[in-house]
Amino acid sequence: MENSISRPNKIGRFTLGFFGNLIILFFSVTCIFPAIWLFYSSLKTKAEFHADPVGLPQAFNFNSYVYIMTKTNMWIWMMNTIRNTVLSLVLILLIGFIVGYFLSRFSFLGRKTLYSYFLIGMLVPIHALMIPMYVLFNKTGIGDQWYTLLFPYVAFGLPIAVFLVESYMHNIPKEIEEAAAIDGSSFNRTLFSIVLPMCKPILVTVGIIQFFSVWNEFTFALILISKEALKTVPVGLTIFKGQYATDYPRMMTAMLISILPAVALYFAFSKQIIKGMVAGAVKG
Amino acid sequence: MQNNSMTKPKSMTFVLYLLPSILLYTFIVFVPIVLAGYYGFFDWSGGVSKTFIGFQNYLGLFSDDEFKKSFVNNIYLTFLCIVGQIGLAFVFAAMLNSKLIKFKPFHRTMTYFPSILSAVVIGFIWNMIYDYNYGFLNTMLTKLGMSQYVQPWLNNEKMALTLVSIPLIWQFVGYYMIILMSSMAAIDPQIFEMAEIDGATGWKKARYITLPMIKNTLIVCVTLCIAGNMKVFDHIYVMTGGGPGDATNVMAMYAYKTSFVSYKMGYGSAMSIGILILSLIVIGSTRYVLTRLSREKE
Question: Which residues in chain B are contacts of A21 at CB distance < 8 A?
Fold first, then answer.
């Protein structure tokens, strides 16, 4: 068998290829199947689901969707999550870009220290900070506000952004800024209208990584927000779980709606998303 | 515009641009650590009154069996995930890099898909797979005529932790697979061709060429995997809440329960510091051992 692989033995190659393809295909299918199961189960009635949790629905039944979208707080949670995600992304990209730019371009006292200081943040296990952060936020009065979650999301999003922008800036020649300065462009103008657009590729990468981490974030949203009107989708789902413990199709509909934006984005741009997230992980 | 370059802005500009970010970052990431260290010295239920009790909370951690148990659970999960995630990811990545496998872009997209879902959704999906009455697993077992195996899976104290690790492994195999694939793709194909001429087989190529060539990436993967598993919380919170008993309790879950369910904020804070130190020790020492080991081999 072993030799058959290296020699041009067609049967051995075919068998290996056949089983290899089969195994990979099986794993790929298990990865996507839960989403498909959610989808067709969301179209079932409760009775239908109880009769056969695995089978396909007999008819399309959109009652669960109507219920989730009209009788629950799903819209509010969705809007909160969208607001948190958009604002965090804007701030992370802006601050990360500025800090990364300064760290890579200029030598100043404490530059190296500052760089390591930002990198250390990647090592801090955020779950060790739950309790003190809860206390800190409640004592300073910035807990339970519409902007509360922006603080941890931006602060913990910064290290990777700073790191990626800093290393990307090394590829951009300094002469560009010097030329701009000679032409009379002010520092601010050069920074935002010349350097920023040049960093677009790396900012897209940072944006992709942070989009999914903020969109899916659970722990901070769980402990720092207690007002119903400010909760996010992941926390909202755990509330549903308590309320509809027995109504599986309804629960599955809620889950499906909650992942829909991220899923749509993923399948539209999967190539760039995979590339971006992996680039961030390996360099980080 | 004083020293090295004409584009260097005034020091005031530096302060204006950098200070806000430094303050924000310090306030969110480091102030809580200091605070946790401070609160750890008090007997405190979150209210106005705090009683200073010295090192009692910190020393208490050493004799707290539940904390030890949850740390061991973290380590167990980490072990399973390193073997499962990185092991499977390596095998799949090697397969996908060979010419025998078809539809590569399809497999990449599909296997990576679970990585973008939230831990909450992953947890709920697997809850429904393991569910006793209407779960996917039990339904399939019944349909296949193996109803003797039907059981309330996550209530099984002996198996719960292992069952909980399956979603964790499953979710991120694709992630590590893509990382490993990109590092494998960087290996010069001529090396493989020469090895093939010398008669190396698929397995030998993987063991003696691919593995050593990507070992730095593997170390990165192992580090990511450990860091991820030392802080695992969301999945556990959703799937079992640490139960049955404390069978699936992990450090973050225990700290959460101590602080927000039993309101022992002082002890919870001390535990936070404990988690921080333990995580750094585990990550640091494995990194050290792995880098040493990989150097010695050369």
Answer: 100-102
B200/A contact by beta carbon, under 8 A? yes
Average pLDDT along chain A: 87
The per-residue pLDDT for range B110-122, each reduced to its tens digit, is: 999 999 999 999 9
- Average the pLDDT over each of A3-12, A61-70, B59-68 and give the range with the smallest value: A3-12
User: A40-82, pLDDT tens digit by residue?
Assistant: 988 988 888 888 888 888 888 888 898 888 888 899 999 999 9
Average pLDDT over residues B28-43: 91
pTM summary value: 0.88
CB contact under 8 A, B118 and A177: no
Contact between chains at A125 and B18 (C-beta distance less than 8 A): no
Rounded (5°) CA angle B97-B103-B107: 75
List, in order of start, the domains of chain A with CATH numbers: 2-64 (no CATH), 73-243 (1.10.3720.10)
Structure tokens at A74: 């799903």
* Helix ranges, A121-228 (H): 130-140, 150-169, 175-182, 187-189, 196-198, 200-216, 219-224
Bridge partners (DSSP) of residue B42 are B52
Q: Which two tokens stand for residue B271?
A: 């535990």
* Contact residues, chain B, for A16 at CB < 8 Å: 100, 202
Please, which residues 239-278 of chain B have a Cβ atom closer than 8 Å to chain A? 251-252, 255-256, 259-260, 265, 268-269, 272-273, 275-276
pLDDT in tens, A150-209: 999 999 999 999 999 999 998 888 888 889 988 888 888 888 999 999 999 999 989 988
- Which of B:109-168 have CB within 8 Å of A? 109-121, 124-125, 128-129, 133-136, 139-140, 143
CA B175, B180, B183, B188 dihedral sign is negative
Instruction: Give chain A positions within 8 Å (CB) of B257.
Output: none
**Smallest Cα distance from A216 to chain B, Å:** 5
Task: Walk me through the domains of chain B, giving residue ranges and CATH numbers.
Answer: 40-120+167-297 (1.10.3720.10)
Q: Is B289 helix (H, G, I), strand (E, B) or coil?
A: helix
